[in-house]
Structure formats: C-alpha cells, structure tokens
Amino acid sequence: MLRSQQSCHASSWRTLTKMETEALHIKTPVLESHPLTTLSGFRVFLKLENVQPVSSFKIRGVGNLCQKAMRKGCNHMSWDDADALALKLAKQPGYAYIPPFNHPDIWEGVATVIQESAAQLPEKPSAVVVSVGGGGLMAGVLQGMQDVGWNEVPLIAMETKGANCFDAAVQAGKLVTLDEITSIAKSLGARTVAAKALEWTHKHKIINHVCSDQEAVLACERFADDHRMLVEPACGASLACVYERLFKGWKEQGKLAELKSVLVIVCGGNIVSLKALKEWKEKLGLS
After folding, report:
1. Phi and psi dihedrals of 129, rounded to 5?
2. What kind and span of H or E run contains 195?
3. What pTM was computed for the model?
4. Which residues, including other chains, have CB under 8 Å from residue 257's CB and lie 6 or more apart?
C-alpha cells in the first residue's frame, strides 16, 4: 500500500529521486546446469532469480509498480495484513493499492526476466518453465517472451497439488476459486489465478502440470545437492519437471518437439532454510 501526503499526481517541478528511476532488482545470471543437462539429455539453463536482494523474482514486478506510483507522488510505503482493508483504503484519495501479482505494471516488471535471459542465452530455448501461484510470474514471462519474439516457444506452467488454481481454471475454462490452500508450497497459495494468466492460454502454447508436494520438496533437496543453493517448494515445482523427467512424456504425447535447450526460471527461496527443508520432508514422510 502506498500513500501520498497530498495526492498521487506528481508535481511538475519535482525532481525524480534515484529510488524512482533505478530498478530495484538486479540483473541475475543465467547458468547452464551440468547436473540437469546430464540428467535430461538436453541443455538446461537456470535463470537464478533466487539471488535477487529479496531472494525472489517478485521485486521485479512489485518494484516496477511501486516506482510508477512514486513518480505519481506516492511516497510512503507500508504493507497491511488484511488485503480487504488495503482495497478499502485504496478507494480514498492519496492511496494506491499494490497487488502482489494481478496488475499490468507487475507483469511489465516481471517481463524483464525474459528480456535479460534473451541477451544472456547462447540460443533461443525450446521451452521455458515457470511456477504458477497467482499467475503474475507466468503473465510477466509470457509478456517478455512476446517482447523478444519467442512466440512459438512453449511455456511449461508448474503447480503443486492443493495450490493448483491455474489448472482448475484451465480444466473449467473459467476462473475457479479454490476452497482452501492445502499445499506445502505456501508461496503458490493464491486461491484464484489472475484472469490474465488464463487469457494467455488462448494466445500461447502452454503445457500445465500439477506435481505433488513430495516431488517439489525432493526437487528442492536435489537442487541443493547439485547446485549448493536452497530454494522453496514453490520453486521446486518448476525444478520437479526436470528432475521427474516430465519432458520425455510430453514428447511422446506429441506436446513437445525435439528439445535442444530449456530455460527454467528459478523463482526464489525467500522462506527456505535447512530447518524448514527438514521439517517439510518430515511432514511429507520423506525422512
């Protein structure tokens, strides 16, 4: 939630600050994963958004939206626990609502992850893999793919069972609100996916898949062993499609052509620790 002292309209004389003009996110590396390349039989590249200052891609979208609000004159930032209260306050003069994933400025900011990747990769990937919660990452990545001319590159949208609001919407052909979030991947815990995410299914080739919490957590563990990095189950969902060799089945089903390389968006590890990973494994009976 952003609040201005007067209004959300920039004064004509005001000089923009460094905070308003410089991106809040950093340019993250794209690295080829030799363990995953060896496992899968095609080149696997990792866009390491887990090394962002906030350990998540989300700084790209939220940062872009907040900076645009600041340029309009909003200059005090706080986050309210209750989304309902935030929406109520946003109707008052001098306030701006900052949604976590459902806003064009969020998608515009997230699109930079693909714009960067296109310049970093040695070749256009055969597929791009993302995790889906509320759909902000997915919508932004697809916008970025359109921006760089990757219109024909399939997107793999991964969710965990119990947080699969996008899959539910795809199956129903309309937005669906889950009764509750039962997945351990709490960062994917949106009960309703953004309408923009569902809209993209009519404009781009998207393969969506729901993995289990067990597969997501085991992918986190294997990723830590292979790459010495901790990520959370929401990110593990994307990694699971490589570790579980799902691409082989999609090729056999005719959903994918021959793969030369795949780009996986390693979306983050904001709520992970060795202790948390151990507790997730115990809860899921994996210890």
Report:
1. -115, 130
2. helix 195-200
3. 0.80
4. 126, 251
